[in-house]
Automatic annotation (TrEMBL):
Keyword DNA repair appears in the UniProt entry: no
Originating species: Neomonachus schauinslandi (Hawaiian monk seal)
Record-given protein name: Enoyl-CoA delta isomerase 1, mitochondrial
Record pathway: Lipid metabolism; fatty acid beta-oxidation
EC number: 5.3.3.8
Transmembrane segments: none
Length: 302
């Protein structure tokens, strides 16, 4: 009993600095609430939350068609949903998945980084940082049920999770492919990958901008499990049950101990990181190549 209380106090003390630093999510809007069974359901245009109060789990479905690109509005809605679930004692774990067939997330929204002004770039980058910090340090068990392709920022979102289940479909590649776009994955993207697959594999993957198909993703450790497509959600649920069997405070504290040094690095360099990003993204050469890349994506169709 005394140990449990002590752990709670220690966990709160460790979590508090982040809680303080992370409350100021950009551009919040109010979600509509519903649910008549005492457990609140959270709805927003781009995030569908399906609560399973009996299991203490909520499934968070990303639905920002066509490709779940991480726009400013979408990031904001995701963060609001996460915060609501974290603040509701009913929930101990979330499964994040996609409602867009064949696509988990196409990563950062290129239109947020192209043809805008420096203030917008700064606001957007702050939201991307916030997404990473909040998911990476969430006190909930977070499992990614990856049911589609997941390049760059989509891969980053998966890497913030505690466990990744990928559907075994050769079209569903995952990785930090920024160099293929002529951009550099920021240090905290890199750190997250290194923490997941080790330095050598991360260096190779980052320099070559590798997008791993399922078998390779499993071999290198970008994902923890590859299963037939129709078993992704059920596998995520059974993995979740295993994680939720661990005493919550011990697990949360261990998560923070493992992730604190990585998160601290961004927290102490957050403003400089925003300035670097804005300087980089405002360069003519970068704008031209992002613009050309977007055009190429559009022309692909017709
Ligand atoms: C010195 C250090 C300083 C530090 C500076 C750091 C700078 C680094 C900054 C950031 C890191 C970047 C991270 C990222 O995540 S960048 C985004 C990377 N993502 C991609 O490259 C994926 C691009 N998309 C695709 O490959 C495909 O769309 C697909 C495979 C996901 C899906 O293919 P398909 O189903 O065929 O759909 P379409 O290609 O037809 O796309 C439909 C529609 O969606 C638009 N779109 C696609 N991806 C994005 C995106 N990421 N952002 C915005 N819009 C996107 C696409 O253009 C189509 O639009 P439409 O023609 O108008 O319908």
């Amino acid at each position: 009993m005394a140990l449990a209380v002590g752990m709670r106090v220690l966990t709160r003390a460790l979590l508090r600095p982040w809680a303080r630093g992370l409350r100021a999510a950009p551009g919040r809007t109010g979600p509509a609430a519903g649910g008549g069974d005492g457990v609140r359901c959270f709805r927003s245009p781009r995030v569908l939350v399906e609560p399973d109060p009996a299991a203490g789990v909520a499934v968070v479905k990303m639905r920002n068609p066509p490709v779940n690109s991480l726009s400013l509005e979408f990031l904001t809605e995701l963060l609001i949903s996460l915060e609501k679930l974290e603040n509701d004692k009913t929930f101990h774990g979330i499964i994040i998945t996609s409602d867009c067939p064949g696509i988990f997330s196409a990563g950062l929204d290129l239109t947020e980084m192209c043809g805008r002004d420096p203030e917008h770039y700064a606001e957007y980058w702050k939201a991307v940082q916030e997404m990473w910090l909040r998911f990476y340090l969430s006190n909930l068990v977070v499992i990614a049920a990856i049911n589609g392709i997941s390049p760059a920022g989509g891969c980053l979102l998966s890497l913030t999770c505690d466990y990744r289940v990928l559907a075994n479909n050769p079209k569903y590649a995952i990785g930090l492919n920024e160099t293929l776009l002529g951009i550099v994955a920021p240090f905290w993207f890199k750190d997250t990958l290194v923490n997941t697959i080790g330095h050598r594999s991360a260096e190779r993957a980052l320099q070559l901008g590798l997008l791993f198909p399922p078998a390779e993703a499993l071999r290198v450790g970008v994902v923890d499990q590859v299963v037939p497509e129709d078993q992704v959600q059920s596998t995520a649920r059974s993995v979740m049950a295993q994680w939720l069997d661990i005493p919550d405070h011990a697990r949360q504290l261990t998560k923070i101990l493992m992730r604190k040094p990585t998160a601290d690095r961004l927290l102490t360099e957050r403003d400089a990181d925003i300035e670097n990003f804005v300087r980089f993204i405002c360069k003519d050469s970068i704008q031209k190549s992002l613009h050309a890349y977007l055009e190429k994506l559009k022309q692909k169709k017709g």
